[in-house]
Amino acid sequence: MTTARPALALSALLAVACVTHFAYPKPYDRIVPTTLPGSARTWTYVSGVAELAVAAAVATPRTRRLGGLAAAALFAAVFPANVKMAVDAWNRSRTERLATVARLPLQVPLVVWALRVSRSAA
């Protein structure tokens, strides 16, 4: 496997996430922490743009090292939204509660993946 494959796969994941922020913003709006200033929709769109910028940086060999670090930071930065989603699901079905709680530790492999992409960049 070439070192570009994991980077391109990470870039694709981020690009798809970006598209969903614009195509289906309501679920993202609901998980924006209320402590952030401004409207939830603005944060949804800002995070979508950030994902696209990071996807481009990861996809480009010249900026891949920095892009991988930015991806790791982005995955860490959205963790509070995932926590909010789990807290908000507390009064929902057992399946929804379990799904949102199970999602929390998935941020760790995403951060690790992004850091590996950064380290493997030339």
From TrEMBL:
Sorted UniProt keywords: Membrane, Signal, Transmembrane, Transmembrane helix
Parts of the chain that traverse the membrane: 42-59, 66-83
Signal sequence bounds: 1-23
Entry-linked PROSITE patterns: PROKAR_LIPOPROTEIN
Coiled coil: none
PANTHER family xref list: DOXX FAMILY MEMBRANE PROTEIN (PTHR36974:SF1), MEMBRANE PROTEIN-RELATED (PTHR36974)
Protein name in the entry: Putative membrane protein
Native species: Kutzneria buriramensis
